[in-house]
C-alpha cells in the first residue's frame, strides 16, 4: 500500500509515520514526500529516512495547476494509493481534489467543525473551550470541511497555554495518524455520503 505525505514544515507527523512504517504498524510504505518549502525541516527528515522527495517552490510555476500536474505525475509513477496531508499549508485545487476524491486525508488540531483554518489551537484558547483535540478527515473542496474519519479529545486546563496545549495535541496526533493510515492500508475505511465507518 503506497502512501505519499504532503508537508510544509516541522514534520513531526511525517516522522511518526516513518517510525510506524519501520515498526510495521503502518501496514504500508511512504513512497514520497511532497513539500512546497524546500528549506523545511521535513525535507531533511525525509532525506534521513531515504524517502523520495518532490520539493518545489510554487513561485517557480505560472500556476497551481502547473505544479499540481507535476505532483500528479510523480504520484502516478509510484502508484500512490493514499495522499496524507501532514501540515501541508496550501489548498489543493478543486480539480486535484476531485481527481483524488476519497484518497486524500488531512489531520487538523481541533475537534472539527470547530476552529477550521490556521492557528486552530490559538482559536480554541481564545474562545475559551474546555476541550479541544485532533481530527483526521477526508479532504474535499473546502477548508477542513471533509468527512470526519477519527477524532480524539484533550482537556484544556486553567494553567494551559498555546505551547502546552500544542505539545499534548502533537502527542495525540502522532499516535492517531498512523493508526488511521493503517485502516486505509487494510481496506477498512468506508465512506457513505458524509459518514465514515471503519470495518472490522
Ligand atoms: C499539525 O499540528 C497538524 O495538525 C497541522 O499542522 C501541524 C503539522 O505539524 N495540520 P508537523 O509539521 O507534523 O510537526
Automatic annotation (TrEMBL):
Keywords, ordered alphabetically: Purine biosynthesis, Transferase
EC annotation from Swiss-Prot or TrEMBL: 2.1.2.2
Binding residue positions for N(1)-(5-phospho-beta-D-ribosyl)glycinamide: 11-13
A GO BP annotation: 'de novo' IMP biosynthetic process
GO cellular component: cytosol
Reactions it catalyzes: N(1)-(5-phospho-beta-D-ribosyl)glycinamide + (6R)-10-formyltetrahydrofolate = N(2)-formyl-N(1)-(5-phospho-beta-D-ribosyl)glycinamide + (6S)-5,6,7,8-tetrahydrofolate + H(+)
Residues carrying the site annotation Raises pKa of active site His: 144
Example of a GO MF term: phosphoribosylglycinamide formyltransferase activity
Bilayer-spanning residue ranges: none
Pfam families referenced in this protein's UniProt entry, alphabetically: Formyl_trans_N (PF00551)
Main enzyme class: transferase
Active site: 108
Entry keyword rRNA-binding: no
Summary of the function given for this chain in its UniProt record: Catalyzes the transfer of a formyl group from 10-formyltetrahydrofolate to 5-phospho-ribosyl-glycinamide (GAR), producing 5-phospho-ribosyl-N-formylglycinamide (FGAR) and tetrahydrofolate.
Protein name: Phosphoribosylglycinamide formyltransferase
Taxon lineage: Bacteria, Bacillati, Bacillota, Bacilli, Bacillales
Gene name for this UniProt entry: purN
Amino acid at each position: 500500500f503506497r502512501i505519499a505525505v504532503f508537508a510544509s514544515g516541522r514534520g513531526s507527523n511525517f516522522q511518526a509515520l516513518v517510525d510506524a512504517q519501520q515498526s510495521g504498524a503502518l501496514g504500508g510504505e511512504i513512497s514520497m514526500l511532497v513539500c512546497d518549502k524546500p528549506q523545511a525541516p521535513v525535507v531533511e527528515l525525509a532525506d534521513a529516512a531515504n524517502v523520495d522527495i518532490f520539493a518545489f517552490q510554487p513561485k517557480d510555476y505560472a500556476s497551481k495547476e502547473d505544479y499540481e500536474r507535476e505532483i500528479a505525475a510523480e504520484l502516478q509513477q509510484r502508484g500512490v494509493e493514499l495522499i496524507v496531508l501532514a501540515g501541508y499549508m496550501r489548498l489543493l485545487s478543486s480539480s486535484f481534489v476531485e481527481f483524488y476524491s476519497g484518497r486524500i486525508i488531512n489531520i487538523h488540531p481541533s475537534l472539527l467543525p470547530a476552529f477550521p483554518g490556521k492557528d486552530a489551537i490559538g482559536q480554541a484558547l481564545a474562545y475559551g473551550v474546555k476541550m479541544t483535540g485532533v481530527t483526521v478527515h477526508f479532504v474535499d473542496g473546502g477548508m477542513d470541511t471533509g468527512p470526519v474519519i477519527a477524532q480524539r479529545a484533550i482537556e484544556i486546563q486553567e494553567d494551559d497555554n498555546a505551547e502546552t496545549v500544542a505539545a499534548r495535541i502533537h502527542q495525540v496526533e502522532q499516535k492517531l495518524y498512523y493508526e488511521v493510515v493503517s485502516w486505509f492500508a487494510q481496506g477498512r475505511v468506508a465512506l457513505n455520503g458524509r459518514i465514515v465507518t471503519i470495518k472490522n
